[in-house]
UniProtKB/TrEMBL annotation:
E.C. designation(s): 2.3.-.-
A Pfam family assignment: Acetyltransf_10
GO molecular function, one term: acyltransferase activity, transferring groups other than amino-acyl groups
Name of this chain's protein: GNAT family N-acetyltransferase
Domain spans labelled N-acetyltransferase: 4-151
CDD domains linked: NAT_SF
Keyword Protease tagged: no
Alphabetical UniProt keywords: Acyltransferase, Transferase
InterPro entries: Acyl_CoA_acyltransferase, Bact_Acetyltransf, GNAT_dom
The keyword Acyltransferase belongs to this UniProt entry's keyword annotation: yes
Length: 154
């Protein structure tokens, strides 16, 4: 990978961000969820609801040159909406984005990171030290609640 740049999302990023997330859901999550679930998940990340998320969450973007290639968010104690462009997966970017948001959580003195993993990402999070809590059922399909204690800075 060429050099990566990271910055916070603003509402001006909503269209490329929605495009990245919806593309990733259709390519990567379609392995584990049926068509109805995929359409519901994509609707959550349509530009209008995503604008509200950008305003209310801490969303980090990763660019390679001018291209948006990854994103992750932090809301309260929850790591949310981690997506890596399918063409850039398997090169360590998901791990880097997770580490950055965990560091941000530590600086906010959050003792434990929580997340709802897709079935697709479960093994990825397990490799990063997240423990299974429980399987949860949502209208969009099943998700896995996972947790990881953080060593909080004093
Ligand atoms: C999950 C996702 C973010 C991972 O990003 P990525 O950039 O491909 O992951 P990385 O290359 O950083 O992988 C980090 C480690 O996890 C492992 N890993 C990644 N995906 C894995 C999988 N599906 N199963 C097992 N291990 C996996 C890698 O082998 C790597 O291990 P290593 O450090 O020992 O080499 C990405 O695949 C994605 O966007 N998936 C679709 C969207 C999604 O489901 N997001 C989660 C929403 S909750």
């Amino acid at each position: 990978m060429k050099s990566l740049k990271f910055r916070k999302a603003t509402v001006a990023d909503v269209f490329p961000l929605s495009g990245l997330i919806q593309r990733t859901i259709r390519v990567s999550n379609a392995r584990d969820y049926d068509r109805k679930s995929i359409d519901m998940l994509c609707a959550i990340f349509a530009p209008e609801p995503l604008t509200e998320r950008i305003e209310n969450e801490n969303i980090l973007l990763c660019f390679e040159g001018a291209n948006l290639v990854g994103t992750v968010g932090l809301k309260g104690v929850y790591l949310r909406s981690l997506f890596v462009d399918p063409a850039f997966q398997g090169q360590g970017l998901g791990k880097v984005l997770t580490a950055r948001i965990e560091e941000e959580a530590r600086q906010r003195a959050i003792p434990e990171m929580m997340l709802h993993s897709s079935l697709t990402a479960r093994e990825f999070y397990a490799a990063l030290g997240y423990e299974f809590v429980e399987l949860q059922s949502y209208p969009e399909g099943p998700f896995v609640l996972m947790r990881k204690p953080l060593n909080v800075h004093r």
